Structure formats: C-alpha cells, structure tokens
Amino acid sequence: MAHYRSVGEIPPKRHTQHRDADGALFYEELMGEEGFSSDASLLYHRGVSSALVDSQVWELADHTRTPNHPLKARHLKLHSLETGMCPVEGRRLVLGNNDVRIAYVVTGTDPSPLYRNAIGDECVYVESGTGTVESVFGVVPYRAGDYVVIPRATTHRWVPAEASRLYAVEANSHIHPPKRYLSRFGQFLEHAPYCERDLHGPTSVLLAEGDNVDVLVKHRTSAGIVGTRMTYATHPFDVVGWDGCLYPYTFNIDDFMPITGKIHQPPPVHQVLEGWNFVICNFLPRKVDYHELAIPVPYYHSNVDSDEVMFYVGGDYEARKGSGIDLGSISLHPGGYAHGPQPAAIEASLGADYFEESAVMVDTFAPLELGEGGLAVEDPAYAWTWAGRGPDDPAVFSNS
Q1: 267 three-class SS
Q2: How far apart are alpha carbons 216 and 227 in whole angstroms?
Q3: What pLDDT score does 288 carry?
Q4: What is the mean pLDDT of residues 237-245?
Q5: Residue 311: how many CB atoms within 10 A of its CB?
Q6: Cα distances (angstroms) measured from residue 305 to each of 165, 189, 245, 337
Q7: b or e along 17-31 (b: 16 or more beta carbons within 10 Å of the residue's beta carbon)?
Q8: pLDDT of residue 315
Q9: Nearest residue to 320 (alpha-carbon basis) of 283, 372, 368, 371
Q10: What is the DSSP letter of 19?
Q11: CB-based contacts of 87, cutoff 8 Å, min separation 6
Q12: Share of the chain above pLDDT 70, in %
C-alpha cells in the first residue's frame, strides 16, 4: 500500500533516538517488503520485538488438497459447511494451489488468538458480521462487504462483535491494487474504480500489557505449510507510534464504482486487487449494456490460462439461474473448457437494464485443487446443468 500514514508518537528523523517521558528508549522495528526494496513501515516498541521465551509446534487444520480430476466445473455450498468458531483456527480449506488458498469460517464472538501469516498477505472478505481487527498498527473496524487486507507477518487478532462469515484469501505473495490503476508514483488514477478515500487504515495505536504472550505463526518449510506457537516476553501490542506505507486496511465493495459499457464488459473491468498469479474481482449491482441488441449476461468463454472462482454474496446472479447456485455458493470453472451462462438465462436477460447481484471472484493462473472443506459441501449435479442430464441421473437442474 503505497500511501503514507503516520500514527502515534514518532521521532522527527527515522533511525534516531526516541524516548519516553522517563528517558527510556523505544525500540525501532522496520517492517518491509522485498528486503529493503519496497513498501515499509517503522514501528516504535516499548519492548524488544524479537524477545522470544519459547517456540512450540502449532498443529494446523487439514491443508490436504485433491486435484480437480476428472476435470469438471464444481459447485460448493459454503453455507452448509460446518466450521470452528475461531476466526483463525476455525477456517476450513475450500480451494488452493501453490500461490493462494481460499478458506471459510463462521465465527462466534470470542476473539481469535494473536496470529500472523508469515507466508503472504491475507485478504479476508467479510460476507456478514461486524467487529474489529486488532494489530501492532492499531485497530481496524470491519463490516459486511469489507475486504480486510493484512500484510504478511502482521501480528493481529480478530475480535468479532457478532457472528461473522469470513472468506479468507491467503496468498503466498503480497496483495495490492492493480498497477494499471496507479500512477508511476503510486497514486490512484482518474480511471480507477476506487481511490485512496475508500481505504481505511488504523487511526490510533493500540497498547496492551502482558508477558509470556503466545502468537500463532503460519509459515513454510520444505515439508509444506506448518504452524509454530511463539511465546514472547512482552505483549506485541506495545507500539507507541509508526509511520510508512505498509499497514492493514479495509475497502468496502459498496465503494467500488462498476465500469459499464454499451456491450458486455470483460471481467478485468471488475478487478479490485491482485497477487502473484491471481486476481480478485467483484461483480456488483450495476446498469448493464445499452446497445439495442446487447446480451447482458456473459458470452461463453474458455479459461485458457486460469481457473475462475465465483463466491455469490448478494442479489440474484443472472447468468447462473437454473443451476442451483444460491447465496453462499462457490462455482469453480477450471481452465480447459468453455463455460458461460445457463442456456435459459441468455434469453431471460434480454432487455434488462440493471443487475442486482454481488459476487467476489478469484481468478488463478495455476490450477486449483479442492480442500477438504470444499469436498465436504460439493453439489455433484452442477457440472451437468448446461446439458440438463448427467452420466448417472438425468433428473438434474433443468436450466430453467
């Protein structure tokens, strides 16, 4: 996030002495990306941020992945998925590859443990619920429709004010706005569908006392993704001030301005964020095509280079009518074959001037595999809904 922010007490010059009223020195920490070559922030701690007193194995939830083989479209009913209630430890893996993992959790109102993802950034879409994310940078409130973007290795915890449905996109990379939206200096350009005013970061520091404080850390080894429970001598939330361009923030999909046209616009106009080998888009209520012969729903298209994941979160998605897709559904349309609207949806869309639908899309440029959570809630009939019959039972959805 290349937008400078300063919060709390910081010295006039970086890398110089910064002391409290009694003369005690604060400890400066540089948190930066790509070594010393990209965005960074400087944090000033009351304690020593590397003062560990213990490190033990944290057993992660099941991260097993099953290839999408034989190849077919998939429909996963997330609202049928039973999860733990912890915003971190209760997540169940739905889909994933070596670049990104998608998990889902329905929380209670208890705070999560302190946690950080040392593998990559996280972008958590809030399907429903409210609460806050507390971090070393301060507090960020969240609400339904928010993307909560948390930089790699940020120590934080989720504090739901009410039960929350969280759709977590965990990257092996950093997540940021598309480069085509930004000037060469990082400012949002006039054609971008959102801007700096729509991004909400911490506004004050969060100080906590404590010793022997546990932090759950997700990280990588040659054996794959693992977890460690690190115990710190003092509480990580001891930052009296920080400044820089790296921090957690929220962006609400209601602040995204859809780009429309005279004929159907391709998915890149809906893009909101991107990481290495994947993009995040959102399809929102909007006016649709105004050519007199326009077909408002998408044309059939082959995902030559990508797998497409749609998470249906609001309204009535026109292109999927007759397929069994509903709110809380995920559709996976993998690379390797053509997909598009249900046949009856094409004629039904003619003459429409507005779509009342909301969906979050993740497109990946490497094949996605199914997590144990995805397999648990699959609708096996979905792949055959375009034809109206399948290999074992012709009584599938009729496309009407």
Answers
A1: helix
A2: 7
A3: 85
A4: 98
A5: 24
A6: 30, 28, 33, 11
A7: ebeeeeeeebbbbeb
A8: 85
A9: 283
A10: B
A11: 105, 107, 112, 158, 160, 164, 166
A12: 96
- 394 pLDDT higher than 70: no
Residue 73, SS3?
A: coil
Burial class (CB in 10 A: 0-12, 13-18, 19+), 209: exposed
Give the DSSP letter string of 151-219: -TT--EEEEESS--EEEEEEESS--B--GGGB-TTSPBPTTSSS-GGG-B---S------EEEEEEEEE
Instruction: Determine the Cα angle at 190 with ends 187 and 192, to 5°.
Output: 80
The single residue listed with the structure tokens 């005279």 is 262
Q: How many CB atoms lie within 10 A of CB 315?
A: 15
> Looking at the whole model, is its pTM more than 0.90?
yes
In contact, 166 and 89? CB cutoff 8 Å:
no
* In contact, 267 and 361? CB cutoff 8 Å: yes
Tens digits of residue pLDDT in 292-305? 888 888 877 887 89
Q: φ and ψ at 335, to 5 degrees?
A: -60, 145
How far is the C-alpha of 291 from the C-alpha of 112, rounded, in Å?
A: 50
Residue 8, CA distances (Å) to 41, 238, 258, 387 in order = 13, 12, 36, 61
Two tokens at 118?
């040392």
Residue range 131-167, pLDDT digits in tens: 999 999 999 999 999 999 999 999 999 999 999 999 9
- Maximum CA pair distance of the chain? 79
Which tokens hold the place of 167?
């759709």
